[in-house]
Design goal:
Blueprint: H1 6-14, H2 21-24, H3 29-46, H4 50-63, E1 67-68, E2 80-85, E3 89-94, E4 104-110, E5 115-126, E6 129-137, E7 150-157, E8 163-168, E9 178-179, H5 188-191, H6 195-198, E10 206-209, H7 221-234, E11 244-250, E12 255-257, E13 263-266, H8 269-284, E14 291-297, H9 314-324, H10 330-335, E15 338-342, E16 345-346, E17 368-371, E18 375-376, H11 387-399, E19 404-406, E20 416-417, H12 421-425, E21 430-435, E22 437-438, E23 446-449, H13 450-464
Parallel strand pairs: 1-2, 4-14, 4-15, 15-21, 16-22, 17-19
Antiparallel strand pairs: 2-3, 3-14, 5-6, 5-11, 6-10, 7-8, 7-11, 9-10, 12-13, 13-23, 17-21, 18-20
Helix pairs in contact: 3-13, 8-13
Bound molecules: manganese (II) ion (MN) (2 copies).
Residues 270, 301, 442 line the site of one manganese (II) ion.
């Protein structure tokens, strides 16, 4: 075995390069990570919408001693509470040993994902086929949503105000749905259009039936037959679609990717791949020094607006409410608080290297990505984490043996994106983006590395449990 040269030793001391997380994992830690990801896959398969994620996490939290937050109650260190934000977002909180005047440690991720929403009046018949009109939600590459099996999730409120939950296309034997596409034999015009214009948004119509009602003559007999089936199954009439939220999502389950099973392919990694580890980290944080606040929010994919998105006041108000239980003002708590905006970043894809700056790209398996800023053009529309806070976060991760790397969302001027970071930062909180690198982000089937998922859990837990 040859000795290291002086240059090699000096390089180790002076240079920065993120390593494959498997090189730095302890013995047995890879198995622990793989095991953690079995729970994550269950979460992915059970929670394809924000509403389902809230139900799942609330149940898990209650099993682990969380109770509904009461703004008029007094809470001691170690007490665990949750606040349900209109069934689409959730805050989990564990009161710390220190007073809230020292701030809270916040981790915020999102549980909405790109999908096809049904329009308010979706059902029609054309050429004896029944279809649903949709309006896509979030940033999608429309061609990826054709010719792929879809399931339908959501709620319908009937005229009498009663609610029916819908989840069809997921169970073995369930019917599924699909957006059809042109055959290559006849797509000459379509194929000559730019990729982004090949499929028009208004053409993302979902095929849902093709048999007429009985043998009666008349128009819209296929639609009538569908409506009859829906009426029998869900007790609804056509106007009830107006008071419904129905979301078409990919019907397949999460699965291991690769002969080595090192990755997971699934719909909705963005951002359940941060939501799940942050929730598990929060639950496993037992008696923290600082109060921990874990937020899983809705509406990130449409810009965080609306009363369940982080651009609204729900987090600010929750902080004010917990502050008041200790006789403090919300703003004093916010000023002293720190937040990890937990969201995915683009993983470097060797098939498409040109969109990244290799030196500042995030790579699968190199751990969680610390993203100083996002935005587009000249850092437009972003939080830009301070050097002071970056310094603190890297120390927290290093001390807890968390694999981490730096990352930027693509080359300068290549495009860009945003997260919830700026909305929390705008409240006066120290914030940095930390998350998992993803391949094929926003596709109906995205890919992440299992080690990175586990490192997210480890990193969030270290952040929530820090003692100064
Ligand atoms: Mn995201
Ligand atoms: Mn996204």
């Amino acid at each position: 075995m040859s000795e290291k040269t002086q240059a090699e030793l000096l390089k180790e001391e002076l240079f920065y390069s993120a390593q494959h997380a498997s090189y730095t994992c302890d013995d047995g830690e890879i198995a622990v990570a793989d095991d953690f990801c079995e729970g994550y896959k269950d979460f992915l398969n059970s929670c394809k919408t924000e509403r389902e994620a809230v139900v799942y996490v609330k149940e898990l939290a209650e099993k682990n001693g969380y109770i509904p937050f009461d703004p008029k109650a007094y809470y001691a260190a170690g007490d665990k509470v949750y606040a349900d934000i209109r069934s689409k977002a959730l805050i989990l909180c564990t009161f710390g040993k220190k007073s809230l005047e020292n701030g809270a440690k916040i981790v915020a991720s999102h549980i909405d994902s790109p999908r096809l929403d049904l329009k308010p009046n979706p059902l029609y018949e054309d050429s004896q086929l029944a279809l649903f009109k949709t309006h896509y939600y979030g940033g999608i590459k429309k061609y990826q949503w054709t010719a792929t099996p879809l399931a339908l999730h959501g709620v319908i409120y009937r005229r009498d105000g009663s609610c029916v939950n819908v989840c069809i296309g997921e169970d073995e034997g369930d019917p599924q749905f699909v957006v059809t596409d042109l055959l290559p034999h006849l797509d000459k015009k379509q194929a000559n259009r730019p990729l982004g214009e090949a499929i028009e948004g208004e053409n993302l119509n979902i095929l849902i039936g093709s048999r007429p009602f009985g043998k009666d003559e008349g128009s819209e007999m296929v639609k009538l037959n569908i409506m009859k089936i829906l009426n029998e199954k869900y007790g609804i009439v056509e106007s009830d679609f107006l008071s419904a939220e129905l979301e078409a999502v990919p019907a397949y389950k999460a699965s291991d990717i690769g002969f080595d099973r090192s990755m997971i392919g699934s719909y909705g990694h963005d951002d359940r791949v941060c939501a799940y580890p942050s929730v598990m980290a929060e639950i496993d944080t037992v008696m923290p020094e600082f109060t921990s606040v874990t937020v899983i929010t809705d509406k990130e994919e449409t810009g965080s607006d609306g009363n369940t998105g982080l651009h609204s006041a729900f987090l600010k108000h929750f902080i004010a409410d917990i502050a008041r239980t200790q006789g403090l003002e919300g703003r004093d708590v916010l000023r002293a608080s720190e937040c990890l905006s937990a969201d995915v970043n683009a993983g470097f894809d060797p098939t498409y290297p040109s969109v990244h700056d290799k030196l500042n790209a995030a790579y699968l398996n190199k751990g969680i990505v610390v993203t100083k800023y996002t935005g587009s053009r000249g850092k437009s529309g972003t939080n830009d984490a301070s050097a002071e806070f970056m310094s603190k976060v890297r120390t927290v991760f290093d001390n807890a043996a968390v694999s981490w790397q730096t990352g930027e969302l693509g080359k300068v001027d290549e495009g860009g994106g945003g997260t919830v970071a700026k909305y929390v930062a705008n409240l006066g909180v120290e914030v940095v983006d930390v998350g998992v690198p993803v391949l094929s982000m926003h596709a109906p089937f995205e890919v992440v590395s299992k080690l990175d998922v586990y490192m997210a859990y480890k990193g969030f837990k270290a952040f929530l449990e820090q003692s100064n």
